[in-house]
Amino acid sequence: MASLWVTHPAGTATTHLACTDREPLCRDKALTQSVRTMTVTFSNMDRNVAGLVSQQLKTRNKDANEPLEVHALANEHQQEVLAFLSRRPIHTVCMAGYVRDHGVVSPLNRGTFYGCRTRTGALQGVALIGHATLLETQSNEALKVFAKLKHHYAHSHLIRGEHSMIERFWSHYAELGHELRLACRELLFEQKCVPEIEGPIPELRPATPAELEEVMRINAELIQSECGIDPLKRDLAGFRNRLLLRIQQERIWTFMSDNQLIFKADVFSETPQMAYVEGVYVDRLYRGKGHGLRCMAQLGRILLQKSNSICLLINERNRRLKSFYTKAGYRFRGCYDTIYLHREN
Q1: What is the pLDDT of residues 99-145, one digit of tens each?
Q2: Three-state secondary structure string covering 151-176
Q3: What are the residue boundaries of the structural domains of the chain, listed by start?
Q4: What span, in angstroms and rounded, lies between the C-alpha atoms of 303 and 66?
Q5: Closest to 124 (Cα-Cα) out of 84, 92, 165
Q6: Which of 89, 102, 221, 263 could cross-link 273 (Cys pair, CB 3.0–4.6 Å)?
Q7: Fold category of 193-307 in CATH
Q8: 0.70 cut: is pTM over it?
Q9: What is the dotted CATH code of the domain comprising 40-185?
Q10: pLDDT per residue over 237-251, tens digit each?
Q11: What are the angstrom distances between the C-alpha of 218 and each of 16, 88, 266, 302?
């Protein structure tokens, strides 16, 4: 019997979270009649958020054998958080990367890290809630709490995680009246060793600040093709600053030929256990000629000197990319869901 409950008005039930490439999912509009209750303690967090959430909570101590405490994490929790996230590094590499790069509390995280604990202090879940919502917990009760917290963040772009976790999280979040704008099913691939690829080894190098404008153009096109939002129009200054920081960290790798950018890949996050790669690009004129495979192989050799594995996500419906990354030595590890939200969410 679950010992943790939350009170909220009856909401709308959702259908099974099936994923499409560009089409939004529909919600069943039938009202549920259920009312749930939960004992939760909020501490060390924004008073406005904590106050709004606590106003909707009703406690039933007689049913709460082990209530959860939810609090905003601080830099003093960094080692504890990293230890918790290290249990499943392929699923937590982005959160762990934020913490290792910027600390637990930083505007560069674009959100707030929260922890869910039992009454004895055991950490049951960690969530980054903000521009992107990322979750790590095996507790359905913790997911309910994180959904309640997320409900009070007006400026949020996406929710991403393992299919089963996001499906459960969304069932709680949708009951609070939220609707998705777009949902995408993605496939998680991992590389632990680099296969031998025929042909010359490309001379990959870190991008330089002089290449910032071209990197911005390429990444903006990739983002817009995936979610329909142009970051050059939505947040030009922030987009520029984030990519410049990534260049300064030497986490954008390029291959140039005759002063033309042929290949680019971003290393979003690096930890000793895992590196997460995104924004892989090959110039159209050079596709299908082996340049991409050779560049990905060389990138793997570079990154695997510092991390045990490399992972990335690809759209489920892109069969060409599945074949490409399989040839590059990546292996399928699981399904992910990315839910893009309406701006008012």
Answers
A1: 999 999 999 999 999 999 998 999 999 999 999 999 999 999 999 99
A2: CCCCCCCEEEEEHHHHHHHHHHHHCC
A3: 40-185, 193-307
A4: 43
A5: 84
A6: 89
A7: Aminopeptidase (3.40.630)
A8: yes
A9: 3.40.630
A10: 999 999 999 999 999
A11: 34, 31, 11, 22
